[in-house]
């Protein structure tokens, strides 16, 4: 059984991520923990005035959150009666990433699925601060769903490797589970700074071939192109349905999501982005 964490602020963006999760895990035994996080600093004078005299603002906010979660879990249970799903609501009054960390640890979460929660363009999504903080600070795989993205069968999955990455089987389960379940073709893309092939890179490719021997896979590389631009172009040309990667270094996160001083290009995902940890 899988334990999946679904953070929600009851927005259309978070609801869309939940809808994706319902489709993504079809025919699997799953417990979905739906988490709503309330932050004390958000509640000002209006909340104080609106709260009943016999209760605190804190308790009033928590009660409202619990009611909304109860409605949502009942609705999802009703809509997925043909699936082996169970749903549990969690309300927390905390810093967003701290609440996520606590839930991941206490509920033994296998994967966090959340919306991008940032500004959007016609075909692109900018990552919001909550999403980036979870990617940075939470030790759990994260699947980020672009706003408005509707589930499609995962025919082709991209596994992106940074030039400084070295192959390690630890943390690969979410990717392997996905391509195995959907019988996806796997495109392995190496983002390189130059055409030099090192011994370590040669060894990595050999290990990757062996590791994915039972999965239809191909190798690709793009040289001397900013990572964000290289991936975005590849996703469009190769009709990618999901992009998976490890993000291990803070410097790469900054360069990838915000753009370097030289490129000024930040990553804006068109397809679900699976962030793995090892």
The radius of gyration computed from the alpha-carbon positions, rounded to a whole number of angstroms, is 20 Å
N- to C-terminal separation? 21 Å
Strand content: 15-25%
Structural class: alpha/beta
**CATH architecture descriptor of the largest domain:** 3-Layer(aba) Sandwich
3D shape: globular
Strand adjacency order, main sheet: 3-2-1-4-5-10-9-6-7-8
- The sequence of SSEs as H and E is EHEHHEHEHEEHEHEHEHE
State the CATH superfamily name of the largest domain: HUPs
Q: Report the CATH topology name of the largest domain.
A: Rossmann fold
**What is the highest CATH level, the class of the largest domain?**
Alpha Beta
Unreliable stretches, pLDDT < 50, 5 or more residues? 119-126
Biggest β-sheet strands, sense, barrel? 10 strands, mixed
Structure report:
The chain is of the alpha/beta class and 278 residues long. The chain folds into two domains: 144 residues, Rossmann fold (3-Layer(aba) Sandwich); 121 residues, 3-Layer(aba) Sandwich (Rossmann fold). It has nine helices and ten strands. It has a ten-stranded mixed sheet, with helices on both faces. Helix 9 links the parallel strand 9 and strand 10. Helix 4 packs across helix 5. The protein is globular. The two termini are 21 Å apart.
Task: Describe the structure using short key phrases.
alpha/beta; Rossmann fold; 2 domains; 10 strands; UspA; Universal_stress_UspA; Nucleotide-binding universal stress protein, UspA family
């Amino acid at each position: 059984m899988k334990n999946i964490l679904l953070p929600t602020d009851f927005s259309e963006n978070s609801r869309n991520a939940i809808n994706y999760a319902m489709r993504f895990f079809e025919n699997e035994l799953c417990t979905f923990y739906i988490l709503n996080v309330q932050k004390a600093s958000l509640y000002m004078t209006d909340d104080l005035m609106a709260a009943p005299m016999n209760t605190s603002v804190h308790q009033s906010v928590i009660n409202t959150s619990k009611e909304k979660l109860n409605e949502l879990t009942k609705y999802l249970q009703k809509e997925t009666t043909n699936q082996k799903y169970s749903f549990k609501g969690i309300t927390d009054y905390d810093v967003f990433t701290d609440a996520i960390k606590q839930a991941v640890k206490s509920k033994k979460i296998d994967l966090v699925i959340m919306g991008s929660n940032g500004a959007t363009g016609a075909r692109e999504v900018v990552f919001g601060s909550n999403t980036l903080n979870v990617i940075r600070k939470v030790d759990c795989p994260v699947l980020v769903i672009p706003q408005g993205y509707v589930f499609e069968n995962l025919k082709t999955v991209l596994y992106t490797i940074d030039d400084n990455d070295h192959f390690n089987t630890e943390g690969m389960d979410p990717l392997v589970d996905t391509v195995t379940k959907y019988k996806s073709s796997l495109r392995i893309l190496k983002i390189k700074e130059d055409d030099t092939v090192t011994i370590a890179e040669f060894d990595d490719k050999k290990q990757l071939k062996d590791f994915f021997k039972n999965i239809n896979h191909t190798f690709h590389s793009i040289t001397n192109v900013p990572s964000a631009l290289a991936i975005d172009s590849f996703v469009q040309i190769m009709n990618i349905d999901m992009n998976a990667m490890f993000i291990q270094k803070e410097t790469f996160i900054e360069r990838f999501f915000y753009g370097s001083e030289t490129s000024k290009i930040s990553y804006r995902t068109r397809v679900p982005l699976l962030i793995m940890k090892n």
